[in-house]
Amino acid sequence: FAKRQGRNHLHFFKRAEEHSKRVDIHLRNRFQQAIDEEKLALHYQPIIALQSGEMVGVEALMRWQLEDGSFVPPDTFIPMAEATGQIIPASEWAMEQACVDLKQMLEKREQLCVSVNLSVLQFSRANFFEQIITTIEAHGLANNRIELELTESILMDDSDHAIKLIERFRNAGIATSIDDFGTGFSSLSYLKKLPVNRLKIDRAFIQDIVGKSSDEAIVRGILAMARQLDIEVVAEGIETAEQAIRLTELGCGFGQGYYFAKPKPLAEILKDLE
Ligand code: C2E
Ligand code: MG
Ligand code: MG
Ligand code: MG
C-alpha cells in the first residue's frame, strides 16, 4: 500500500511539474506577443530628496497588462524573461520608451533623471555600453539624465567585466546604482571596488526601521559606509511618515516608496510636475 501511495505521489508531482511547464510556455508566448505588439508599458515612481521633499527623479518600472485588464507582477514576468532571454528585447524597448517619456518630463522640469533597471543578461552582452549611449544620443538627451540600476548579481557573473563597464558608464556621465542593496550575497567590502554613484537600500531593512533597533543599526552602518565612500543612498519602500522622518534624521539623502507616491503612468507624473 505504501508503495502504491509513493507512486501516486510521484505521479502527482510529475503532473504538477508538467502543468507548471505548460503555464510557463503559455506565459512566455503571451509575453512575446506583448513585446511584438508593443503592449508593455512603463510606470514611473518618484524618487524624493528627503530634506527638501522635492522629486529629483523617477524609476521606470515595467508593466504588463493582459487583455482582461489584470497586471502580471514584474516579480513573475521579469525572472521568466531573464530565463528565456526575452528580457533583452523587452529592455531595449524600455530604454527607448524611457527616453521618449523623459523628454516630456524634462519640458516640465529640467533637472529630472530617469532610472532604468538592468538585467544581468544585458550586462554580459557585447556592445551593451555602445547601445545605451546610442539610444540616449538618438533621443537628443544628455547622458546625465539617465541612471542605471543594477543588482549585486551582476558581480557574480564576471565582476572584473562589471566593474569596467560601470566605470565606462561613470566616465560617460551615466550614474549607476546598486539596487536592493543588502539582499545579495556579496560582502560590504566589494563596494569600495565598485565605481557606483549610489546604492538603494532594500525595502526589507526600511520596513521595521522604526522600532526594530537591529534594522536601524544596519541602515546606520550602510549610511556611514556610503558617506565614507562618497556614495549617495536611496531608501526603498518608505511607507510611513515615521520612516521618512527617521531616515532623514539618520542622514539618508533620498527616498522612494508608497508614502510619497506609487509607480504611475507618465500622464500622472507630468501632472505632478505642473
Ligand atoms: P525594484 O527595481 O527594486 O523596484 C522597486 C519595487 O518596489 C517596485 O516593484 C515598486 O513598485 C515596489 N515599491 C515601491 N515602493 C514600495 C513601497 O513603499 N512598498 C512596497 N511594498 N513596494 C514598493 P515592481 O514594480 O513590482 O517591480 C519589481 C521588480 O521587478 C523591480 O524591483 C525590478 O527588480 C524588476 N523590474 C521592474 N521593471 C523592470 C525593468 O524594466 N527591467 C528589469 N530588468 N527589471 C525590472
Ligand atoms: Mg530598481
Ligand atoms: Mg529595489
Ligand atoms: Mg527589487
TrEMBL record:
All copies of domain EAL, residue ranges: 24-274
Keywords: Membrane, Transmembrane, Transmembrane helix
Name by which UniProt lists this protein: Uncharacterized protein
Species in which this protein is naturally found: Pseudidiomarina aquimaris
